[in-house]
């Protein structure tokens, strides 16, 4: 099983907290916790987001993610693209890092950063994604920050860049939740757009079985099933959790119960393997 969307470091986005990823035991404790979750849920490979870059020698914010990946077999890094950081020297450093092959995708934080995907600052990153044949993941949908402006995170905005950059493969994180049907339309219409299934429900393991959450969970499952059917592209949905916001085992069961069993192999394994070339 491949988890296409986890976090092992705080993303350093405005208004977003540490997500329990700065424990007293530091990186070693995150490594132990992650390995235990992966083993228990049967997750063999996972892709972990970086954070907003804070230093010149780490232009994609992946230094700590790569440090953790070196200790967790099957863990890979996704670099963070900031549209304001598009100066030639910065992009040169990004290119140098992508050339190492250690970074499996780029990620843009729509909403958290107040730029639409059509912003000129993203364009050089699309060109690099095309050159290195790596997907470009966008946060889409609801945000966990009071400073975010959510209209920038609407999945429909990705249609523009999907059309203008036909050789770049885009991923709509969270199926654009709560705009899942809009996300499904963008997946259906564009051959270069995927969606990840992460973060549709967050909380502790108990929250996934709590009676008071049953209605909300049923709603989310029904919305997801409808969007998945509408898109008619089972080969372009990627399993992901958004761990540690959701526990890996409970989330796996939640997604498995939401989507047709005949598509599980694609969703949980094959689609991500192909897209990220793992
Ligand atoms: Zn996330």
List the helices and strands and how they pair.
Blueprint (H helix, E strand, L loop, with lengths): L1 E6 L18 H16 L3 E5 L13 H7 L5 E6 L7 H12 L3 E6 L14 H9 L4 E4 L18 H7 L5 E4 L6 H10 L3 E4 L17 H18 L5 E2 L9 H11 L5 H12 L3
Parallel strand pairs: 1-2, 2-3, 3-4, 4-5, 5-6, 6-7, 7-8
Helix pairs in contact: 1-8, 6-7, 7-8
Main structural class: alpha/beta
Span between N and C termini? 12 Å
Radius of gyration, in angstroms, nearest whole number: 17 Å
State the CATH class: Alpha Beta
- Residue-averaged pLDDT: 97
CATH level 4 superfamily: Metal-dependent hydrolases
Arrangement of strands in the largest sheet = 1-2-3-4-5-6-7-8
CATH architecture: Alpha-Beta Barrel
Largest sheet: 8 strands, parallel
Number of domains: 1
Structure report:
The structure is a single chain. An eight-stranded parallel beta sheet has the order 1-2-3-4-5-6-7-8. It starts with a strand and ends with a helix. Helix 4 (123-131) links the parallel strand 4 (103-108) and strand 5. Helix 6 (180-189) packs parallel to helix 7 and helix 7 (214-231) packs across helix 8. It has one domain: TIM Barrel. It is built from nine helices and eight strands. The chain has 278 residues and is an alpha/beta fold. The structure holds zinc ion. Zinc ion binds next to strand 1.
């Amino acid at each position: 099983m491949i988890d296409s969307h986890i976090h092992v470091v705080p993303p350093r986005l405005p208004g977003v907290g540490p997500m329990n990823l700065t424990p007293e035991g530091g990186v070693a404790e995150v490594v132990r916790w992650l390995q235990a979750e992966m083993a228990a849920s049967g997750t063999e490979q996972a892709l972990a987001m970086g954070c907003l870059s804070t230093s010149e020698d780490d232009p994609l914010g992946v230094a700590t993610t790569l440090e953790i990946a070196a200790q967790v077999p099957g863990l890979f890094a996704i670099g963070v693209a900031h549209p304001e950081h598009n100066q030639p020297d910065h992009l040169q450093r990004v290119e140098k890092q992508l050339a190492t092959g250690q970074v499996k995708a780029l990620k843009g934080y729509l909403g958290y950063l107040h730029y639409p995907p059509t912003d000129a600052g993203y364009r050089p990153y699309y060109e690099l994604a095309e050159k290195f044949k790596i997907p470009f993941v966008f946060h889409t949908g609801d945000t966990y920050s009071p400073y975010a402006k959510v209209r920038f995170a609407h999945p429909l905005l990705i249609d523009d860049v999907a059309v203008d950059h036909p050789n770049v493969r885009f991923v709509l994180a969270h199926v654009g939740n709560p705009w899942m049907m809009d996300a499904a339309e963008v997946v259906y219409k564009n051959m270069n757009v995927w969606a990840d299934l992460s973060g549709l429900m967050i909380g502790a393991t108990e929250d996934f079985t709590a009676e008071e959450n049953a209605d909300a969970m049923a709603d989310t499952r029904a919305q997801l099933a409808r969007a998945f059917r509408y898109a008619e592209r089972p080969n372009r949905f990627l399993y992901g959790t958004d761990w540690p916001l959701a526990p890996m085992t409970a989330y796996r069961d939640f997604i498995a119960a939401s989507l047709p069993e005949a598509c599980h192999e694609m969703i949980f394994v094959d689609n991500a393997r192909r897209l990220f070339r793992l």
